[in-house]
Amino acid sequence: MRAVINGLRSVVRTTNYAPNGRNILRQNECILRPQIRLFAAKSSPACWNCQNKSELRQNMICSDCGHLQDVDAGINYFELLSFPTKFSLEPQKLTQSFRQLQTIVHPDKYSNKTSREQTNSADWSSLINKAYKTLATPIERGQYLLQLEGETMPQDNSALNKEFLMAMMERNEEVEEAEDAKSLEDLNAQLVKELEEMAQRLSSLFEAKDLQGVKGTLVEMKYLLSIQSSIKQKQQRLLGS
């Protein structure tokens, strides 16, 4: 194993090679590239029931007739959950807002309504879930904000330096050589701490409009999350042995 790792290190010194010989960027593409539809700003459409263009309550309900409107798949997730469009947010308040919205659109409340409102209820519930999961996870929240800025993530590891890549190789090696649950727990605890620090860094980078720094930090977070996933898989193997 040492000979293999040393060989890989020599490759990293001359190329931007993914750690441990795996294309982690492609493995985690779903984390870094959520499917986000962006729409230009537009005026509220007329209510499908009363035909009035009144202001919507909670972005979903006609303030004139009270009917649940068709889902707006292009709505800003922050706006939907009543948060300013910025990286820093309070997780407890986010969860509270999520639960309040889900209460409003819960299918049980529309079981005796029109078929259109029943469909809208399910559609809004699904979108609210998606918005919450995106904003609740730092790496996905950062990715979403980046795309709202019209930016895309790099398709390779060019945003990383060779020292970081070598460090990731060494950490993968530590996971592979760990022989007990305690060692894996210690490795995971360190990753959790570093991911929290990176989330704080992202907040500062977004405030400073340093989008290149944002991209680099998001890619680094992706690598740490991949190692964390490897730790969890090995912990499960140890439990099953």
Can you say what the CATH homologous superfamily of the largest domain is? HscB, C-terminal domain
What is the straight-line distance between the termini? 22 Å
The total count of helices amounts to 10
Number of strands: 2
Overall, the morphology is elongated
Low-confidence parts: 1-8, 10-42
Strand fraction equals under 5%
CATH fold label of the largest domain: Monooxygenase
Tell me the domain tally: 2
The CATH class of the largest domain is identified as Mainly Alpha
Give the biggest sheet: 2 strands, antiparallel
Assigned CATH architecture of the largest domain: Up-down Bundle
The neighbouring-strand order within the major sheet is 1-2
Topology:
Blueprint: H1 2-14, H2 24-27, H3 29-32, E1 56-57, E2 61-62, H4 77-80, H5 91-105, H6 115-136, H7 138-148, H8 162-177, H9 181-207, H10 211-240
Antiparallel strand pairs: 1-2
Helix pairs in contact: 1-8, 5-6, 6-7, 7-10, 8-10, 9-10
Write a structural description.
- The chain is mainly alpha-helical.
- It folds into two domains: 2-33 and 153-240, HscB, C-terminal domain (Monooxygenase), CATH 1.20.1280.20; 56-137, Orthogonal Bundle (Helix Hairpins).
- Helices cover 61% and strands 2% of the residues.
- Strands 1-2 form a two-stranded antiparallel ribbon.
- The longest helix is centred in the C-terminal third of the chain and has 30 residues, at 211-240.
- It starts with a helix and ends with a helix.
- Residues 181-208 form a coiled coil.
- This is Iron-sulfur cluster co-chaperone protein HscB.
- Belongs to the HscB family.
- Keywords: Chaperone, Coiled coil.
- One of its GO terms (molecular function) is ATPase activator activity.
